[in-house]
Amino acid sequence: MTEAQQPEIQQPTDLLALAVDTARRNPYGFLAGADDRGRPHVRLMQHLVVDDDATVCFGASRRSRQVADVAGAPEVGYAIEDRAAFSYVTLYGRLVDDQARCLELWDDEPGIRFFPEGPTGDDFALLELVPHRIELVDFTARLNPEPHGLVPSVIEKTETGWEPRIAQRATDHGTETRT
Hints:
The chain is α+β, with helices and mostly antiparallel strands and 179 residues long. It has four helices and eight strands. Strand 7 (153-158) and strand 8 (161-166) form a beta hairpin.
């Protein structure tokens, strides 16, 4: 790879910042999980807030599939596209139901329309996605490692912080090898 082809962003902290910025600029994404029998569930979600550590918060009904999925299989992926930047970010982690944070983030204006009893009512749940793996491709930031967009840049959370990982292309049988 020539110097001109090198990604402008290479440090895990830069990748984390780009992921957070992409999520903050694009409030919708697809939340993918599985039910207790391993069947996929994918739904379009609007996130409420994105923290500096890439934790993403969603509001949901306690009677929703999202909340049911948390109890059965909390490991999810959340994919966000930034069409203008020809990029995407996927956050992988666990969804947790956080009622303490719910009060902190509640906004009466949109919230009351869907949850008339407010944040302390029986129906509202705040779900937090706490990521442990982030995958990114961003062509405007020249963040498209060889083979040029066929694999994402990857960081994973460790005990010491975010560390880079190498994503590999699929094998002949369509399975991905992850490090």
